[in-house]
């Protein structure tokens, strides 16, 4: 699989767009039907939204469970039905209670830091009703819009980090806004954590802003905006293949191999790689097991391994007895190339 036939774009999503809208725009940019994201980002949120296209969409499933890092602005003094600023106000905290947040004395700052730290660890979180999770075949936000009652599902989440970054006063609303950075497991609703943060301080709260800083090892520093992509698209005569080529050459498009660097990797010669593309099992002595090339928390599900040949990611697979077996193949046999002298590349 070449980067023009499949790869990953790390989009810096702008506020107001749904994740599905981003997918639709990337389809236009790349002239590709097979496009998908690796985990929904709320419309009001910004930041990292990995987009797979072409044959790389088959890998999207394996990216859904990656940890996420967010920077959240938590507005104290008001709660909404959606737990963010787009919702309808359901509760206000009296101004007499909020006055204590204006002082910014050392005692208050220590309290704000301590409350953030208290979130670290495993916890049970109730899924917000304004979410895309399905109950009895219907998305929760549809129940909310209909005013129907529904039992909200609960799930176990993990907060790995929760760091207080400061507090400001929102010029538009006059409410104090606390900035907290969270590193959380997949499926965590930061909006719900924001509301809970306020309750721990004795007041109402909602997410005033939310920016995803990273999804797994993919960071906002590696991302590109849709505006920049469309500018390049227009300059290239709105030619999708020319755009793909340019984005591949400047490194904006990421290869699958460069994304899964936290997984164990087995390097194969040309013959072994060809066997894998045909779905054949390969003896373990024909592959060289390499350690992960980055210290990340994301590892292959069910101990899956990345199978590579030179700079090409051939397949995901596993060890069965004395053989390597494939679970998902990404290359056709005709795409296997020989890379002499390249045993452990910098970018698979």
Could you give the topology of this structure?
Blueprint lengths: L5 E8 L5 H12 L4 E3 L8 E9 L13 E9 L1 E3 L8 E4 L2 H4 L7 H12 L3 E6 L7 E2 L2 E2 H7 L7 E16 L6 E9 L5 H11 L4 E11 L2 E2 L6 H10 L4 H10 L3 E2 L1 H4 L5 E4 L1 H8 L4 E2 L3 E4 L14 E5 L2 E9 L2 E7 L19
Parallel strand pairs: 3-12, 15-18
Antiparallel strand pairs: 1-3, 1-14, 2-3, 4-11, 4-12, 5-6, 7-10, 8-9, 10-11, 12-13, 15-17, 16-20, 18-19, 19-20
How much helicity do the residues have? 10-25%
Structural domain count: 3
- Total strands: the figure is 20
Radius of gyration: 23 Å
String of helices and strands: EHEEEEEHHEEEHEEHEEHHEHEHEEEEE
Find the structural class using helix and strand composition: alpha+beta
In short:
22% of the residues lie in helices and 34% in strands.
Written description of the protein model:
The chain has 348 residues and is of the alpha+beta class. The protein has three domains: 6-66 and 218-254, no CATH class; 68-214, Pseudouridine synthase, CATH 3.30.2350.10; 257-335, PUA domain (Archaeosine Trna-guanine Transglycosylase, Chain: A, domain 4, Roll). The protein has helices spanning 19-30, 95-98, 106-117, 140-146, 190-200, 226-235, 240-249, 256-259, 270-277, and strands spanning 6-13, 35-37, 46-54, 68-76, 78-80, 89-92, 121-126, 134-135, 138-139, 154-169, 176-184, 205-215, 218-219, 253-254, 265-268, 282-283, 287-290, 305-309, 312-320, 323-329. Strands 1, 2, 3, 4, 7, 10, 11, 12, 13 and 14 form a ten-stranded mixed beta sheet that branches. Strand 18 (305-309) and strand 19 (312-320) form a beta hairpin. The protein is elongated and about 75 Å long. Residues 338-348 have low confidence and may be disordered.
């Amino acid at each position: 699989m070449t980067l023009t036939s499949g790869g990953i774009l790390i989009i810096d999503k702008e506020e107001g767009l749904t994740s599905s809208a981003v997918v639709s725009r990337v389809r236009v940019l790349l002239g590709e039907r097979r496009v998908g994201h690796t985990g929904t980002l709320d419309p009001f949120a910004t930041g990292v939204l990995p987009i797979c296209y072409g044959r790389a969409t088959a890998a999207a499933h394996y990216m859904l469970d990656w940890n996420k890092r967010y920077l959240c602005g938590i507005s104290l003094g008001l709660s909404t039905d959606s737990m963010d600023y787009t919702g309808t106000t359901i509760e206000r905290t009296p101004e007499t209670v909020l006055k204590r947040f204006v002082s910014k004395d050392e005692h208050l700052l220590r309290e704000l830091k301590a409350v953030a730290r208290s979130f670290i660890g495993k916890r049970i979180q109730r899924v917000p009703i304004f979410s895309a999770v399905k109950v009895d075949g219907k998305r929760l936000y549809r129940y909310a819009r209909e005013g129907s009652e529904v039992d909200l599902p609960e799930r176990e989440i993990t907060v790995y980090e929760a760091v207080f970054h400061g507090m400001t006063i929102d010029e538009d609303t006059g409410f104090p806004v606390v900035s907290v950075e969270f590193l959380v497991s997949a499926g965590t609703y930061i909006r719900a954590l924001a509301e809970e943060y306020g309750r721990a301080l004795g007041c109402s709260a909602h997410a005033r802003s939310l920016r995803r800083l990273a999804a797994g090892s993919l960071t906002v520093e590696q991302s590109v905006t849709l505006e920049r992509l469309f500018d390049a698209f227009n300059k290239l005569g709105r030619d999708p293949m020319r755009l793909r080529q340019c984005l591949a050459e400047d490194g904006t498009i990421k290869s699958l191999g460069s994304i899964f660097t936290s997984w164990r990797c087995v390097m194969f010669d040309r013959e072994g790689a060809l066997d894998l593309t045909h779905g054949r099992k390969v003896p373990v002595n024909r592959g060289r097991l390499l350690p992960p090339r980055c210290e990340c928390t994301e590892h292959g599900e069910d101990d899956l391994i990345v199978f590579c040949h030179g700079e090409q990611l051939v397949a995901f697979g596993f060890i069965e007895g004395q053989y390597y077996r494939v679970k998902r193949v990404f290359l056709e046999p005709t795409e296997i190339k020989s890379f002499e002298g390249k045993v452990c590349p910098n970018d698979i």
